[in-house]
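Why do we bother with holo predictions? Because pocket geometry can differ from the apo form. Keep that in mind while you read this record for zinc ion.
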Amino acid sequence: MSEEQAIDADENENREREELQQKLIERREAALAHVVKFGDPVLKSRASPVTEFGPELREEVERMVHIMQDGMGVGLAATQLGVLRRLLVFQAGSDNEPSALINPEIEWMSDELAIAEEGCLSLPRVTMDVERPLHARFTGRDVDGEPVTIEASGLEARVLQHEIDHLDGVLILDRTERKQRKAALRALRAEESYHPPVEDEDDHGEELREPRTDA
Ligand SMILES: [Zn+2]
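The structure, written out:
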């Protein structure tokens, strides 16, 4: 291969990568168009328990998983699609399979807490630091109506708590410190972005911070 051909191959590869990137962005935007955003009163409403387990529920779970994955989220609550039923899907980490949890309850939470920056598919362009129990045990039903128990830590425990909050009409805005809440609200109203200030790298507290989540 000549130098020129090598350059052409590089350019083709770059173009393909850019096209793929563009496709992912478009798919994400299409998915996020289904998600209820800040300001909609449904986000402050409490969802009702699911009582019927059947093909309709299975279809709803599949729809939610697609929207979560295309939206590049790690979790999604039915409330975020304007459906006030106690139903959530989550996928904490790309190695994990997506799962659904229906009528979830938090059975136990650790005294040990962790702070991490969280995003929310319903709160575009903003993230906030949220302190939550590091470990938790959740109960509920799977899509077939069978009882399930989930012992979760770290990101998974965080995502599940975030989604259960949605089912109770609670947002990360209600869980963050006053200063960040005010700044995030201002950004949301102005359609601008907000991210909490990054701590000094020398600060050992930084090591406890987990990767950012959109849920
Ligand atoms: Zn959320």
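Residues 96 and 117 are 21 Å apart (CA to CA).
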